[in-house]
Amino acid sequence: MHRPVDLRSDTVTVPTPEMRRAMANAEVGDDVYGEDPTINRLQERAAELLGKEAALFVPSGTMGNEIAIKVHTRPGDEVLIDEDCHIVKWELGAAAFISNVQLHTLPNRRGIVPVEEYARRIHPGDDHVPPTRLLCLENTHNAAGGVVLPLEYMREVWRLAQHHGVAVHLDGARIFNAAVALGIPARELASCADSVMFCLSKGLACPVGSMLCGSRAFIEEARRVRKILGGAMRQAGILAAAGLVALDTMIDRLAQDHARARRLAEAVANMPGFSVDMETVQTNMVYVQTEQPARRIVQQLETLGVLCLDVFPHTIRLVTHKDVNDEDVTRAIDAFSKVAG
Q1: Positions of E strands within the chain
Q2: What is the spatial distance between Cα 244 and Cα 190, in angstroms, rounded to a whole number?
Q3: Which CATH number fits the domain that encloses residue 268?
C-alpha cells in the first residue's frame, strides 16, 4: 500500500532524522529570560543569513508578520499592500484586530504592484487621510503561484519607501525558494526591507516556527509584542535545534522541489480539462486551472492516493517539498491523467 502523495502544502513536511537527533540532544534554557542557548544560536544564525542585526524565533509566520506590522505602525496608520498577499487573504484580519491599522490593498499582476502605483498612493497624512507608515511585500508570492518578485523590482520599491520615510516589511515565508530560484543569497532580497519574516516549517521541513529579522531596536520591541501575543516560550531550544539543522542542510535542496514542480506542471498542462500558466511555475508551486469544479477533481484525486487543495472554485494548488520524490511525481501525473477530460 503506497502512502499518499501529499501535495497540499510544504507545511506537511516532517523533520529529518538529523533534526530529530538534534532536538533530542538540544541544550535548553528559559528563553523568556534569554537563557536558551539553542534559541540564541538560531537567532544569531538567521540574522547572519539575512544580513540583519538581530532575529526572533516566533511560533508561526502569521505571528511574525503581525508582530512586524504592530512594531512598524501606530493605530490609525495606513499599510500599503497587494490585495492577494497572505497578510490580506489568510491572516483573519489580524492587522486590524491587533494593530488597528488600515490596509490599503492594491491590484497586482503576479504579486507585483507597479512602483508608480505605490508612489501615487503613499501619503504623509493630514486631517482627512491616514499617514502611510508601512509597505508590505511577499516573496515568493503564494497566491500568484509561487512566483518570485525580481530583485531589481524590490530594490525600486525599497528606494521609493526610503525616500518617503516609509518602512518595508517582507513576508519571506519562502524567501529561500526565491533566493534559490534567482541564484542569489537570501540576504540580497532581505536588504530591500526593514524587517523580514521567514518560515522554518515549510520547505525547510522543521516541525514548528518562523524567524523575524531586523534591526536590534526593532527586534527588542518585537520581543515585547511577542510576549503580549502569547508567543513567548520557555525551553524552546528543542524546536530551535531543528531550525539550525534546516538552515545548514535544507536550503540548497529546494532546487529539487522546483524541478519536480516544473515536471509536474508540464505534464498536467498537456492534459484535457486542465491548464497551467507555465510562466508562474518558478518555484515549488503549481496552480492548475480546471474545467470541472476543482473540489470534484480534488476528491477524485484523493481516491487515487494524491492529496491537493482546491484554493478557488476552478483552481487546484500543488506544492512540492522534500517528502515528494520523483516516484511520487510520477504517481501524481498518472492520477491526473485518469481524471483528465
Answers
A1: 5-6, 54-58, 78-82, 102-106, 132-138, 167-171, 195-199, 210-214, 274-276, 285-290, 306-307, 309-312, 315-319
A2: 19
A3: 3.90.1150.10
Cα separation of 279 and 115, whole Å?
Answer: 21
Domain carrying residue 66: 17-249
Whole-structure pTM value: 0.96
Domain boundary residue, one of 186, 217, 249: 249
Q: Exposure of 320 by Cβ count < 10 A (0-12 exposed, 13-18 middle, 19+ buried)? A: buried
Q: What is the largest CA-CA distance in the chain?
A: 67
With CA atoms as reference, report the closest residue to 28 among 19, 17, 37.
37
Q: Which three cell numbers stand for residue 101?
A: 491599522
Task: Note the pLDDT tens digit of each residue in 240-268.
Answer: 999 999 999 999 999 999 999 999 999 99
Closest CA to 8 of 339, 330, 323, 333: 323
pLDDT at 61 over 90: yes
φ, ψ for residue 287, nearest 5 deg: -100, 115
Whether 47 and 136 map to the same domain: the answer is yes
Do residues 327 and 18 touch, judged by C-beta distance below 8 A?
no
pLDDT digits (tens, 9 = 90+) for 212-222: 999 999 999 99
Give φ, ψ of 19 to 5 degrees. Answer: -65, -45
Positive or negative: CA dihedral 278, 282, 283, 285: negative
